[in-house]
Amino acid sequence: MSVRIFVPNDATAIACGADKVARAIEAGLAARGIVANIVRNGSRGLFWLEPLVEVETPKGRVGYGPVKPSDVESLLTAGLVHGADHPLSVGLVEEIPFLKKQTRLTFARCGIIDPLSLEEYKAHGGYKGLAKAIEIGPSATVEQVFESGLRGRGGAGFPTGIKWRTVAAAPADQRYIVCNADEGDSGTFADRLIMEADPFCLIEGMTIAGLAVGATKGFVYCRSEYPLSLQVMEKAIAIARTAGLLGKNVAGSQYDFDLEMRMGAGAYVCGEETALLDSLEGKRGVVRAKPPLPAHKGLFGKPTVINNLISLATVPVILEKGGAFYRDFGMGRSRGTMPIQLAGNIKFGGIFETAFGIPLGELVYDIGGGTASGRPVRAVQAGGPLGAYLPVHQFDTPFDYEAFAAKDALIGHGGIVVFDDTVDMAHMARFAMEFCSHESCGKCTPCRIGSTRGVETLDKIIAGNRREANLAVLTDLCQTMKLGSLCALGGFTPYPVLSALTHFPEDFGATPKLPAAAE
Ligand SMILES: Cc1cc2nc3c(=O)[nH]c(=O)nc-3n(C[C@H](O)[C@H](O)[C@H](O)COP(=O)(O)O)c2cc1C
Ligand code: SF4
After folding, report:
1. How far is Cα 355 from Cα 329, in angstroms, rounded to an integer?
2. Ligand sitting nearest the alpha carbon of 438
3. Separation of 437 CA from ligand 2 center, angstroms?
4. Under-50 pLDDT residues of the chain
5. Among 106, 180, 279, which residue has the most ligand 1 atoms within 8 Å of its CB, making it the best to mutate?
6. How far apart are the C-alpha atoms of 461 and 177, rounded to whole Å?
């Protein structure tokens, strides 16, 4: 068998030059008369090493990164195909501490397999979850998901099992599964990585969801900025359909399920589940008042499971290994693992899947290596643009829904964006308001008007214009937005604003507080 060389084919690796590296390797091998199989895998999520070229050896997969096309000649001369030593060698990939310290359940196959090889997917545990669901039937499948303690990975952390029970119990002639792959949060890329590195995992998760609640049709709503994800998913769906894993009598069972991709048009608010449903129906994405819940009246008025992509992609491993297995990871009411996305000014950025409970500081310093700039960390923003800024003295906070909520902070979709000591927190607060005014769907006044007034007020504060009075106006406005907004876009924008003000008052020209008093 010819040697296998892996060059990732996802958007991150390609942006870092992976296509050119793959071509250079191909040409270099041909010139040397070496026969090798270049596999375009997905990224492992160790982004600072991309393009990470791997070679299969008897000891395991040896990695080299980040590889530029101009490095290829010296790599081949050194003996890349045998996993030989080279200044770019990172040794056995599985032994890289960033990867070794992880508990990869949802991302178990990412970067390992060829994303579009159904055989490899199955050889690495794929479709065992669906087989189990078919064996135990719909209601036991829902109960496995309930027992796992899985909570929605899109932001709100609502128990997935309860949502599925509600949809399964809603009387209807048609139910739907909708995958929220809008992934609008800053510093997040977990959904994209699954679609580009392990698309069958999502297809299997949605098929299990369909079987569980009696839905025969699913849609993946993918953000417009992910054209490659769309392509990979469409190919994977076609392969699954040909293999009898989508369509009538899925995998030879009595259940039917099929799914289609849909692309958004670039609005953050279309990640909000009801605006997403409007958009899927071909309307402008405007937030719907609840009730009715999408579980009762969702897509085209029918009971709908709408879940984040990671929630759905976690279902196969839950079914394969059992709800109790998954529930054994984590802390408190945060069960299982979370693919934490380390981004911003960080030395080792990427996906770090681990059980809930790891302290924030360990993620930033021990795993992430501190800032890329080498300067001291000043703050992180967790949970996307609506999440709070956490200062260094809160870095002992465990990564857990409730522990974060106790600090007025959000886990959201698991993004952590790191800032060094050059950040101006008053400008970050202004950015939060500006983002809200730009992305507001316009349905309710506190968000539509309040965010614009917020930007104006912050401009006055930054300019030193009647600072104390305007700080009072800002605090009051934030309170109104929190209490009076219809959805979390307007309702949570005050959190980054107020956390910046509370923890970094000196950036607003106010008297700094002692760290202990700022809690
Ligand atoms: C403004 C706004 C944007 C959101 N964007 C996303 C998103 O990009 N992806 C996502 O999964 N959930 C997003 N959500 C949360 C969804 O409304 C919803 O809670 C989620 O899709 C439910 O799936 P889950 O239970 O699996 O998390 C957003 C919510 C709001 C208010
Ligand atoms: S809070 Fe903003 S985004 Fe949400 S419904 Fe109101 S106007 Fe629309």
Report:
1. 6
2. 2
3. 10
4. 513-519
5. 180
6. 46
